[in-house]
Design goal:
Blueprint (H helix, E strand, L loop, with lengths): L2 E10 L2 E7 L9 E2 L2 E3 L6 H13 L1 E14 L4 E13 L6 E8 H4 L12 H7 L3
Parallel strand pairs: 1-6
Antiparallel strand pairs: 1-2, 1-4, 2-3, 2-7, 5-6
Length: about 130
């Protein structure tokens, strides 16, 4: 059975929140949608709420799926959801940096390879 990793697309107006990785070394400095692994007994939505609280210090409501699943390996599947900010204050607890980007900036970022699969869907959501 595959381990699911959930990622949150937090969109505000016409901008998307992206997070710059601190680790592992081969991904450090690359940009991603924040999120993390679903723990045993957790729903995907619960995991995403927990991960974004831990990583960013924010409260979110998880909405619809974004794009298709991305297989990272035989046992790891990445799945993105749209999320809506409901509280908290953004802070990069687990990342090098956070930034808001427009659809025109999506293609110019150095993305974590797996997250690139969602760029067309993100551009549509941002009106690009």
């Amino acid at each position: 059975m595959s381990q699911i990793v959930v990622a949150g697309a937090l969109i505000s107006g016409a901008t998307l929140l992206v997070a710059q990785r601190l680790r592992p070394p081969e991904l450090a400095g690359l940009w991603e949608l924040p999120g993390g692994k679903v723990a045993a007994g957790e729903t995907e939505a619960d995991a995403l709420v927990r991960e974004l609280r831990e990583e960013l210090g924010v409260e979110v409501v998880v909405g619809e799926r974004l794009g298709a699943d991305v297989a990272i390996s035989e046992s790891l599947v990445l799945r993105a959801y749209l999320v809506t900010l409901t509280g908290g204050a953004l802070h990069p607890h687990d990342h090098r940096a956070l930034r808001w980007v427009s659809s025109g900036e999506l293609g110019s970022l150095a993305w974590v390879p797996a997250d690139r699969a969602w760029l067309p869907d993100l551009a549509k959501r941002l009106g690009g």
